[in-house]
Write a structure and sequence with these properties.
Number of strands: 14
Oligomer: single chain
Shape: rod-shaped
CATH topology of the largest domain: Beta-Lactamase
CATH architecture of the largest domain: 2-Layer Sandwich
Order of helices and strands: HEEEEEEEHHHEHHEEHEEHEE
Largest sheet: 5 strands, antiparallel
Structural class: alpha+beta
Number of helices: 8
């Protein structure tokens, strides 16, 4: 389904891009927050380091101690995660906060310039990583100077905990942002594909005959497509017009020679040359059927808007004409057609269809012909019913074929039902032929109601 839907493909692509972008953004934001928290804790450790330096006191005998405790109570709580340590490399002196308990911070043996602050990530008392701020301070005394390495450390678990808490708050927010972005993307895709919907509707108007060309205010990106489609429609119309003109010219050009052949056949028959006359007449009739068929097909216009045609007046005119014929004069005619029914077909096409059906019924009916019509949805069904003998079931399939005649003694070309079927199909309708259960024959033509305009094929 996704391969056939441009909207869905664009949305899935947007989904993948949004998910990837939010994932990268989430990781980067988490790292940025971690750096911010680390700088914050570094600043706090440096503040403790300054307090520690200020609290150092060296007695005349060289004893090193603190003249006051640091402000944070965690320094006095064993293994609390916040530690301080003072050491002197040349004497091996080491003094630490109570929070170190019986352990110490393993400071590296690197050289730190006096007054400079160095940062480390080391293994702390509980085997957990700690972040260390270290500074070497030189105290000058009468008995000599003391270079003390002073360090303050904090358990990295606090930084990790802050990072996890931030991520826990961040990802639900990123999810909400992602959903909002996807909703906006769906709207943007709809807006972007709207011109294609307009093209589809315009093409449907062309297909149904409501318009001759694609019309509308299209964006510049799809204008070349619209122009090419209109050029193709123009070329198709010209080709169809030329084909119809050639068919019409050919058919009209053959009508006169065929009439001459029929006349010659009659003269030969009058001279007693019946075999040759019958053969010429048969060939002339076959050619005449093709001429009549092609004239009908050439008259059927393609792609034009159809004017609604009231059904009842067309049927009444046809019945009035057939009643004046010898066969129709002897029949009983009845109509059951609502006056409000209108068909999406030109009057000529509708007359051609119903004329052939009524003429066929008139040939085979014994006593009565009935014409009924009803609307169902957007279609109109017109039934032409006669009380004749019907047709063999095996002949129903081929009855509307070209030149099919069940009785050669009945005048006709065998093209009436085929022409009616062709015109009905050109109007996107259908013709159904069947024997009636109560006896007789039924020809049902389905056409669209005038509320839905259709075009000739």
């Amino acid at each position: 389904m996704m391969r056939r839907s441009l909207r869905l493909r664009l949305f899935v692509a947007a989904l993948l891009c949004v998910a990837a972008a939010l994932a990268v953004a989430g990781v980067l934001l988490t790292q940025l927050f971690e750096r911010h928290v680390t700088r914050h804790y570094d600043g706090e450790l440096q503040s403790f380091l300054r307090q520690l330096i200020a609290a150092v006191e060296i007695a005349p005998d060289g004893t090193i101690s603190l003249n006051r405790q640091l402000e944070d109570a965690r320094f006095g709580e064993p293994l609390s995660g916040l530690y301080w340590q003072i050491g002197e490399d040349k004497t091996g002196f080491l003094l630490g906060s109570r929070s170190l308990w019986d352990s110490h911070i393993p400071l590296p043996r690197d050289v730190v310039a006096p007054g400079a602050v160095d940062s480390h990530v080391l293994i702390g008392p509980k085997g957990a990583p700690v972040r260390v701020q270290e500074r070497v301070v030189v105290f000058d005394q009468l008995g000599g100077s003391h270079a003390l390495r002073m360090a303050v450390a904090m358990d990295m678990a606090e930084i990790d905990s802050a990072r996890r808490a931030f991520a826990a708050d961040l990802w639900p927010s990123m999810t909400v942002i992602g959903l909002l972005l996807l909703a906006a993307t769906w709207i943007y895709i709809g807006i972007g594909l709207r011109p294609l919907d307009a093209i589809r509707k315009s093409l449907n108007d062309v297909r149904t005959g409501a318009a001759r060309r694609l019309e509308g205010d299209f964006p510049a990106e799809v204008t070349p497509l619209v122009e090419e489609a209109n050029a193709l429609l123009t070329a198709q119309d010209e080709s169809l017009a030329k084909a119809r003109a050639r068919a019409t010219d050919l058919a009209h050009g053959l009508k006169t020679p065929l009439a001459v052949l029929q006349s010659d056949a009659e003269r030969l028959r009058a001279r007693g040359e019946s075999e040759i006359a019958d053969e010429m007449a048969s060939l002339a009739r076959q050619m005449g059927r093709h001429v009549q068929r092609e004239l009908t097909r050439a008259r059927m216009r393609g792609g034009e808007t159809l004017s609604p045609t009231p059904l009842l007046p067309v049927v009444e005119r046809l019945v009035a004409s057939l009643r004046r014929t010898p066969a129709g004069h002897e029949l009983s005619w009845s109509l059951a057609i609502p006056e409000s029914l209108t068909v999406a077909a030109d009057a000529e096409d509708l007359t051609e269809i119903l004329g052939n059906l009524l003429d066929n019924a008139c040939k085979w009916a014994r006593h009565a012909i009935r014409v009924e019509a009803s609307a169902s949805g957007d279609r109109i069904r017109i039934h032409v019913l006669d009380d004749g003998a019907g047709v063999p079931e095996e002949a129903l399939v081929s009855l509307a074929g070209r030149g099919v005649r069940l009785d050669q003694n009945v005048p006709g070309t065998g093209l009436g039902l085929a022409i009616a079927r062709d015109i009905a199909q050109a109007l996107e309708g259908a013709l159904h032929l069947a024997n009636r259960a109560e006896g007789g024959f039924s020809a049902t033509v389905e056409l669209f109601h005038s509320s839905r305009s259709k075009r000739h094929a």
